[in-house]
Structure formats: structure tokens, C-alpha cells
Amino acid sequence: MISEGVGEDCLGWAARDASGVLSPYKFNHRALGSDDVYVKITHCDVCYADVIWARNKHGDSKYPVVPGHEIAGVVAKVGPNVQRFKVGDHVGVGTYINSCRDCEYCNDKLENHCVKGSVYTFNGVDFDGSRTVSGSLSGRTKEIQEMVDFCAANKIYPDIELIPIGYSNEALDRVVNKDVKYRFVIDIENSLK
């Protein structure tokens, strides 16, 4: 959701090398575009995908990496062309944040296969050429929205272990050691007060 550039100042917890140790990291993301939604991230989960990228398990991580998987937050700003979201909306963000919206895959709701390239929330490159540094991995937009709507309508809630951001390194270690009963969710909003 965040990339380097000339926008808002941001704070995340980043791995700076393959040790995967996370520590506070200040950076800027690009300026809000006409079609963009700026989300104040309040929570994100931790899973093995975060271990893979933070600890360079595939050998292609681009540091610094601010892991964060399945982001939740509140819309803080919207670009002038945005109609679906408004300031104050509670939203979730998955693995990718943009696509061309016009190729055959995008038209078939398969944005993750976009011919011009999906923009992933971290370890990737945004359409403006800036590098994205935070992120997630999940399914297609339409199916995820249907699942979230179904869960909300039927009052289905996940079992989670809510943790402060300062516990992130221990959470990654526990994921590696398979010492996890519920998904970790980082309470970013209250951790940074």
C-alpha cells in the first residue's frame, strides 16, 4: 500500500537484510494520485509469506522490506476520481493494489494476471516506477470481497492473537517454529500511540 516517493511520511517496521529482523523504518510513499485511496493502516496480520520476504527465502527480496499481510485500516484521503470509497470507510487491502483495469485478464476479474503487470503491495514496482515496500498475498478481488461480505452478513469472525508491533520479530520466529494457534494480527494503531 505504500511506496517510496514524494508523498506522506510513513512509519513501518522493516527488515533491512536477510536476517529478517524488523525495526522502525521511516519512509515516504508516492503522492496521492487521481484514482488512489490513502489508507491509514490500523492492523495487519503475520504469516509465513512475511517470513519468506523478510528473510529472503526466495533470494529476491528487495530491502528494506516492510512486511504486512492482509492489511486493515481507515480511508484517510481519496483522489478526485475515486467514487467507491470515502474518507472514514473501514477497508481491507490484499496482495496487489493496482492493475491496468483494461486488459483481457482485468476485464475477466483476474487482475492478479494483468498483462501490463499488477502492482503488488511490497517487493515490487508501482506504475510510476517507485518501489513498493509493504504488503500482502491473497486471492482475487471479487472473491475476497464476496468472502468478506458473507462473513460480515453472517457474523463470522476469525480467531486471532492480537499483538503489539514490538512483538513482530517474536511472531515471525513463532511462525517459523510452528508455535502458532491463531493468526497473528498486529495492532498498529494502539502500538504507535
Description:
This protein is an alpha+beta fold. The chain contains five helices and eleven strands; from the N terminus they run βββαβββαβββαβαβα. It has a five-stranded mixed beta sheet with strand order 5-4-3-11-10. Strands 1-2 form a two-stranded antiparallel ribbon. Mean pLDDT is 82; it is low at 1-5 and 134-139. Its cofactor is Zn(2+). Belongs to the zinc-containing alcohol dehydrogenase family. Residues 34-129 form the Alcohol dehydrogenase-like N-terminal domain. Keywords: Metal-binding, Oxidoreductase, Zinc.
Keywords:
5-stranded mixed β-sheet; 193 residues; alpha+beta; 5 helices; Quinone Oxidoreductase, Chain A, domain 1; disordered N terminus
CATH fold label: Quinone Oxidoreductase, Chain A, domain 1
The structure class reads alpha+beta
Described by strand count, sense and barrel closure, the largest sheet is: 5 strands, mixed
Number of strands: 11
Tally of separate helices: 5
Rounded to an integer, what's the Rg over CA atoms? 16 Å
Q: What amount of the residues lies in strands?
A: 25-35%
Give the helix level as a range of percent: 10-25%
How far apart lie the N and C ends?
21 Å
Mean pLDDT: 82
What CATH first level would be assigned? Alpha Beta
Shape designation = globular
Topology as H/E string? EEEHEEEHEEEHEHEH
Major beta sheet, strand line-up:
5-4-3-11-10
Q: Quick one: CATH superfamily?
A: Medium-chain alcohol dehydrogenases, catalytic domain
Cofactor: Zn(2+)
Pfam family, one: ADH_N
Protein name: Alcohol dehydrogenase-like N-terminal domain-containing protein
Domain Alcohol dehydrogenase-like N-terminal: 34-129
